[in-house]
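Structure, all two chains, one model.
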Amino acid sequence: MEAAATGSKKVNSKPAKLGRDVQARLGQQLRAMYDEVVNQGVPDRFSDLIKRLEGDGKKDER
Amino acid sequence: MPMDESVRKAVLGAVPSLRAFAISLCGNVDRADDLVQETLLRALANIDSFQPGTNMSAWLFTILRNHFRSEYRKRRREVEDSDGHHAESLKSQPDQYGHVEFREFREALAQLPADQREALILVGASGFSYEEAAGICGCAVGTIKSRVNRARTRLAELLHVNSAEDFGPDETTRAVLASGGE
């Protein structure tokens, strides 16, 4: 590639490659946003669903 | 449906991350929870096709992702849905996400093409390897890598970030930086 020859002026108009610091910050924000949901745990709706499915199965099959 | 205790634990354990993935994909909490519910029903109905010893979480993500894709295509045919529409629906429900600080980031994320968005989330947030993400999306590892790179570059553009100093943890910090810096 010829990236090194283009100089620093072009960085603003077309960032060919993000700096590691930027990537790290984007990653932090992405994970913080994602983890906000993960930290809500398992809503009752889903634990109830699993319980119900298991219960149904036991009644039907045994 | 008799279920092995370890299987039950693994399925339940994957739910929080499945929800986070689903919300990132469809931009709507209620729809995301429906998507997770349909995923669990499908998974448990086909639990025999899960290979013990393999990654339960990756298996569930694959089901959710494929289900979302087929639903998405259907909706797209019905109403001219698009990433723009996705971004709009996101803007209209800011409260559903609780914290306003991720709003700008979510809006930028919503503007990414679906392929890039899912790749970035799987690798950057869900913690899957490039190989696992490729398996979930049914594409080559190299394709995932390039999607993740393009997603990062586009996100930085959308958020107007050229260096880490350009953005703080939230909008307030950004505003302070913008007015105080030069």
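Residues 20-38 of chain A form the longest helix (19 residues).
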